[in-house]
Amino acid sequence: MTSAPSTSPTPLHIDFVSDVACPWCAVGLWALERALGQLQGQVTATIHPQPFELNPRMGPEGEDITEHLGRKYGSTPEQQAQIRETIRQRGAQEGFVFRAEGRGRIWNTFDAHRLLHWASVEGAPGDALALKKALLTSTRAVQRTRLTLLCCWQWCRPWGLPPCLWNAPAPC
Predict the structure, then answer these.
(1) Which tens digit of pLDDT belongs to each residue from 2-26?
(2) pTM of structure
(3) Which residues is 49 bridged to in the sheet?
């Protein structure tokens, strides 16, 4: 006797490895969610944000983004403008609005990743992903730990804030 094929969705665990300051990562996350939406009923996916720092040696003062990208990739300001437009267009295809204004500096994102880790440990299912999306869409959220926490304070308030998240210098 053969059994009928299962009609229950296949569980799918996705580790989404990215930096919160990476615009291509934001586009990828929105594309992933759109693709998963097309598989509704076939899979039950849970997305787990995982940290990756693009610039782990970046100082707390940050750096001018044009200078940083020029040194890191050898790109000119004109090439960078073209790439930003490509990112904007690709993001728009996925429903992501890329806001280039306010992105004149690039920052170390270690503390933002600490906050995400805390959300994944202490929060409800989906909280870390919601925070990740908020950080990806904010032009100022990763500048300093305290500024990140202030931007996310409403979201974090139900749990209280652990002391380890308050050891960074005051925001600019």
Answers:
(1) 555 668 999 999 999 988 888 898 8
(2) 0.73
(3) 16
